[in-house]
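User: two proteins, same treatment. go.

Assistant:
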Amino acid sequence: MTDRPVTLIAGIGEGLGASLATTFAGAGYDVAGLSRSGRSAATIEAQVRAAGGSYRPLTADLGVEAEVAAAVAPLAARIEVVVHTAHRLVVKPFADTAPAEFEAVWRTGLLGAVHVARAVLPAMLARGHGTIVLAGATASVRAGARFAAFASTKFALRGLAQSLAREYGPAGIHVAHLVLDGLIDEPQTAARFGPGDGGRMDPGAVATACLGLVRQHPSAWTQELDLRPSTEKF
């Protein structure tokens, strides 16, 4: 990698993760992608290089603090932006959702964000600036039937973002929660819910909005941004 600032994308994959990577690469960042398997690494690396940046895949189980810390440590001094998108979706009746499934969703979607934040905050504090964006969902603010495991984790992630924003904002660290109020047009969505009808969010537009958050002047900082498909009425 070069000596450019680094954007760390936790939970990177095809679709939104790749769009975030190319958007930030085009804006002058190198990109590190943290995931459990790294199966999309070659494809994303080619896209990042085409956008003018360099890419480093990092492999770790987000639910294991030691693995996250070890993966992030070599780049921690250069990580200026973190976007946490990792999640595990379980859609089941409450009675059919095992406690182990609740824990698995929580470990990926919430505990993983805690581990990533702990890995990057010391260097951000030493520099006096940095940005952490935690990606939520409709379920962050409105829980539906059969979404108990997912919604309870997303509610907690929103609370984590609010607390960190107030604790670290005075030190120059911006923490924001991104409500993605709708499905994103990406391969994972199509695989689970079938082809869309044109009403899904464009991952490139979401990535651009996220970059806009990072570029905001501290005096105009938004702690939460709500994005939704253009077909949905406010």
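Protein 2:
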Amino acid sequence: MFSSLRRSAAAAAAVVALVSPALVACGGDDEAGGDGKTLKLWHYEGANSAMGVAWAKAIEQFKASHPGVEVVFEEKGFEQIRQSANMILNSNDAPDVMEYNKGNASAGLLSKQGLLTDISAEAESRGWAKALSPSLATTARYDERGIMGGGKWYGVPNYGEFVMAYYNKDLFAKYNVQVPKTLADLETAMATFKQNGVAPLSVGGAEYPAQQIFYLLALSKADRKWVEDFQLYKNKIDFKGPEFTYAANTFADWVSKGYIDKNSAGVKAEDMGQAFLSGKFPIMVSGSWWYGRVVKEATSFQWGTFLFPGNKLHPGSSGNLWVVPAKAKNKQLAYDFIDITMKPEIQNLLGNSGGIPVAADASAITDAKSKELIQNFDQVVKDDGIAFYPDWPAPGYYDVLVAGVQKLINGSAKPEQVLDEIAKPYNDNRANVGG
């Protein structure tokens, strides 16, 4: 498969070399009926996030290098795209390029349904494949079953991400709490805050944050083999095994002790973040995608970050993907835009804005906070600690996990019942894809 990919890429490169440079630079008309004069682009990053800042600059550069081409940009919500992508991409209203979540249940499902363009030749000829390390490229490639890690390129990530703990240094100092180095240390710290009437964790149970805490607890008892079995269907997973059993029991225990507020079952990710940014909570466990905002908005207190204590494995991956819908009308323009987001200037800007670039010049990252973030991510990658995300293995699994963890928060189901609930759809999908 790899040799065939290289041969087809070489052939594509030869064809590109024969095309007029002016046509390549301006994108040209597309076989899908595009006019070569409009780039329709969707993404769901906030304007002041690292990615939002970098991609706004990329749009500027695209316009400068493509005179006469109009960029029609629409900022969407994460949930909006997640819930409606299948319908939109099946219509004639599909954008030319869009940000989309990675993993079997997201980009993998769309690739299997024929809704995404195979961009393997572009990934090779434009150097995207070479710029991404194998662990980061895992989420860009999908086989005929829609399982990540092999097969064709259906997307390109231009940043990395991982989950960590943000902490309020002022509250830690006020209550004489040390940065935890082990899970036991973390529980001691949360107990101290709780004893002093301070809710320890800002948690969003209505969306992804709570399930990532649950997954971190499972990862604390897991190894690389378990991650690959769970994510890539290499071997069967026992949901009543030590990993998920520990996660469910410990999560429920944290709720009973008040470390996780029962009201957090209805809290969305944005509200969780805003609560931490206001200085109300000492700890928020969430992704590096918050980093740029924390830098800009956490102005009333000193803050820092630490990796989830004691873990060698952490939720994380490449960032979300730039994908080109199969029904995109101006695919060449889409490829040109993706290429700009991978250029050093955009990558360096992303890094200095609180993001994790995949192809930046390390010496060009001058911001101290950004350097710390990138170094932490590099360490996770070096330790082979990227464990992807819990909702990736199966279509619809995100909602399954949200509902399951909400039941742990509000106490409407016991841990073993929740494990049964999250096991069934996972196992059903595993059987469907022949895993």
